[in-house]
Every structure is written in structure tokens, then in C-alpha cells.
Amino acid sequence: MASLRHDLDLDRYERALREQGFARVAGVDEAGRGALAGPLVAAAVILPEGFDREGIDDSKLLTANQREVCFQRIVAVAVVAVCKAEPAAIDGRGLHRSNLALLRRAARRLRPEPDYVLTDGFPVPRMGFPSLSIKKGDAVTASVAAASIVAKVTRDRIMDRMHRRYPEFGFDHNRGYGTPDHLEALGRLGPTPIHRLSFAGVGQPSLPGMGRGDVATA
Hints:
The structure is a single chain. The chain is globular. It has 218 residues and is α/β, with parallel strands linked by helices. The model is unreliable at 1-5 and 206-218 (pLDDT under 50). A hairpin with an 8-residue loop joins strand 1 (25-31) and strand 2. The chain has a 5-stranded mixed beta sheet with strand order 3-2-1-4-5, with helices on both faces. The protein is 39% helix and 14% strand.
């Protein structure tokens, strides 16, 4: 199914940069930033010039089947790099620092290297390449949208495997996010080794009104 936003010119940033001499324009994005469990996954993608953008969009606006179809099309022809940060690393470094480091790592793993990098939402310092942050980049820029799809599909596949290991938590549908069924299982069973213990309500008490509620004490 094609994107309903087919009227948007998702290639305008890449096209403008290529006209300025930046031949290889990469988009980077991550999946799993707000999850309570599972890794943070980042992807970097350089789409070839002339890539058919039909159906390419922000991964959050696509169905699972649409993402899978787009993922296969992207990885078949694009330059792609994917990397992840495990929960223990996120707990130790902090979410935002982990996110920045992961986006940098994904861009630097591209071969050939990019001439320019587009990021979604916020600047990524020390990228190592000229870069530009774009508000809602995954919704308005083809390469960032492609990176969001690759990161999302990759992470969903990881969470499917984690569901087979920890079926009580429903990772096959909540993907580690704080849904009611996930929070109920977490309260009943406690965290698994793939939970982010630094997150409130997972490995530390929730503030009143901000999580699973107060823990009764004697």
C-alpha cells in the first residue's frame, strides 16, 4: 500500500545537497528510544539516486507489512548500517548519550562513507561529517524515513525473539514499551535481563502519578 502522503517531495533535501556536490547523503534514525525493555537500534541509510520512493514514509505511519516490504526494497539497493545499544549500556551511559553515540556509530559504519548526514529532530554533535537536523525528519526526508524503517524492522525482529524467551511480557506486540499488559507483567514478575533498570518503574520506584504507583511499605 502506498503512502497516503504521496504528494510530499521526500527527496528535496537530498536533491538539494547533491546539487551542492554532496553525492552520498545519509539519513539516520533510531527505534526504541522510549521503550522500557530491549535495545535501542539505530540505522543509517544512503539511498541511491533515482530510488523509487513509493510507499517510503515515517515508519510509525506504516503497517508492519508495509514496513517489511519497504525494508526489503531498501536493503536490496541502498548502503545500510545498523547498530544497537543494549539495556545495560543505556543504564550505564544514559538514554540521550547512548542515542547520540549510536547515531554517530551507524553513520560512521557506512561504506562508502557519507558526504553529508541528515538527522531526525535534534543535532548530533561530533558526527564526523557535515550534518543537518530536521524537525520530523522521518516524515519529510526520504533517507531519514528509510533509516526509521530499517531501525524499526530490525528492532521488531529482535523483540520477536525476546518474546519467545519471555512470553509473559508480550514483547511480540508491545515491543518493550510501557503498555498496560507490559506494566502488569512487570509488576507481577519483576524485570528481565533485557529491561532498562534505570527507567522509573522498572528497576527503581515510580514517582507518584508517574508510573506503576507507590510500593506499599510496612
